[in-house]
Sequence to fold (374 residues):
Amino acid sequence: MQVSYAEGSYIYDDNKKAYLDFVAGVSACPLGHRHPKVISAIKTQLDKYLHVMVYGEYIQEPAVELSKLLAQYLPKPLESTYLTNSGTEAVEGALKLAKRFTGRSEIIAAKKAYHGNTMGSMSVLGVEKQKQAFRPLIPDVHFIAFNNEADIQKITTKTAAVILETIQGGAGFIEPKEGYLEKVRQRCTAVGAILILDEIQTGIGRTGTLFGFEHYNCTPDILVSGKGLGGGLPIGAFTASKKMMDCLMDNPKLGHITTFGGHPLIAAAALATLNEIINSNIISETLEKEMIIREQLQHPLITEIRGKGLMLAAITPSAEITNQVILKCQEAGLILFWLLFEPCAIRITPPLTITNKEIIEGCKLLIDVLDQVQ
Ligand SMILES: Cc1ncc(COP(=O)(O)O)c(C=O)c1O
Fold:
């Protein structure tokens, strides 16, 4: 498809055909396409200044206000945010921060985890086939099975950080079992390991709370966000206590730097996005919208719907069926997508602003295609 234009929940191709978007740029467009408040914030900032100096040297209001707003809505000790250019870069920053703060090197990650594609993030990616060609990666990384309580004992006083997705994304939208994250939290606290939660997908309202960890009674030491925070522009962020974050400032000095992270235009778009999500009914409506999707998507070829809020995966009996359905839906004007490591999953992550009517329209189309495939 050649994209010519996008607005709200729709993308239009060069023949002016409309596609209802059930993917939202892989969860990166929580307010849909070209939300008026985001566009207006971008235009206002465009007329003031763009890049003036590397992050932190001069005070730049959009980045400062964005960091303050995040701190206001996050529990203690998550009060200090470092803005980056992408999710994977925020993961790199979080891993470095944990190593620097603890003076330890061991990192524990989950099997089937996805945290990005740069060297550090790829080192904590939990699918060997995906990273074999790029070895050697960073050393002292070990894997535990997500949701396996016995494996929690592998977190020890040698561990610098445990990094987990709050809900595993690429693995198939796997939610943590009741009490699992709480137990990981307790173990990390007991052995002095830093808990990093990667909320690049689950954050910014997608699961019906501002951040996914709010469902599971587990506050991380470092929170990583990205994707939806930018409202359609590239961003990443890692947030920790000021005490922890401050240790990136010396020994070595400039322990983590970036030219464009915290860019005023991006930060202005992110600030507008976050303000809109916080000051509207978007988050509370997300769980109602989940219910509508679950009610509408009843079909013999859907064996299960996984996930939470508007981070849902419809599972079909085979990868072949999933492929056919995604491709046929696109032909019919509905955008769906795959998940990285679960070939039977159909990704359903629409803009959080999608209307109930649009949800019903998209689900009907999906059911029609499932009927054809059957
Ligand atoms: C959970 C998670 N972590 C990290 C990333 C990497 O983010 P980015 O593609 O912005 O580098 C992604 C992207 O899909 C993600 O879903």
